[in-house]
# Entry
Amino acid sequence: MPRKRSLTFLLAANSAIQSVAFAPVAQSNHVAIKAISSSLNDVIVDPSTRHARIIAPISTVLGGLTLSTGVISTSIPANSVDNISAFEESMLKNVPGALPVSVVCLRVCAALRDRGYTPANTLFGSSVCSDEINDTSESLVSDFVNKLQVDGGFNLGGLGGLPFVGISGMGAFVHHCPDKGKIFIMFGPHVGVSNDGTVGKIERIGQKALSTSCGAGIGAYKAIMSNVGGEDSNIIGTTDFQEEYIIAKLRDRLEPIKGQPSSNETVTFVTNKMYDLVWEMLRAQVNFYTTKASFWDEITEVTLLGGIVINRGHGDGVPEERITTNL
# Structure
């Protein structure tokens, strides 16, 4: 019997909901999902595992949700449309399908338990931005730690959610996995949406003025629009390596919005490009280890969960943060 190997993906791409699980099977039974065909062509695991089919449909992870053109439907009763807040209106327009963190976490953890993830065999890691707003008792990371009942999580992320721990940090992480255990990594950038519906802004404790979120992504966007910094050749050795890296890697990706005034739409565009940066860096690091045959001697499954966390400001009666349907 061939050694069992499995690499599970819950990937994001342009607000499409995707859930994919990979395991070795006969090559003749491939299932194609057009929205992620490019991702499936990437080398993620060893050649035998690349010849895999999708064994977990979207409904396995986020079952019970209505799907419409690949995006979770968040329909609102007709009689309530006139009563929605500026925040909700902005959410529906810019990040349709976003769900409360608790809902996503509950359903994902249920799916993981069905796949054999337990507190004793699971290593949890996250690659989200260093911003303290992502490290509260009600944040997505904290919710996963609590619902998975694991003893904390390994922080892979730096500015913007990029896994700046690098190959060495990823190596330290995977070597912490329980024997014959499973790995679960949640990753992605974040963006604030203020009570008045401004994307990229948020109310912070003790501050009267709105604050930027994500500061790293939006700061890079502003620098690029102003033609400041971020040339690849000048990154190493700088005193602001992480931000300079983001600027360099975002520059060409933001060409479609060059010359456009800053708006909810442009900040949403930038945030989606930030997701691409996080995923590409994480994918390379995961690929570095999962393509080694010895990796699967001690680890039986790896699950990656990607999305964009939407921060909501603090205050009485403010709902919890949400996460987009790029899960």
Q: What stands out?
A: The two ends are 33 Å apart (CA to CA). DSSP finds eleven helices and 16 strands in the chain. Residues 16 and 71 are 5 Å apart (CA to CA). The longest helix spans residues 264-290.
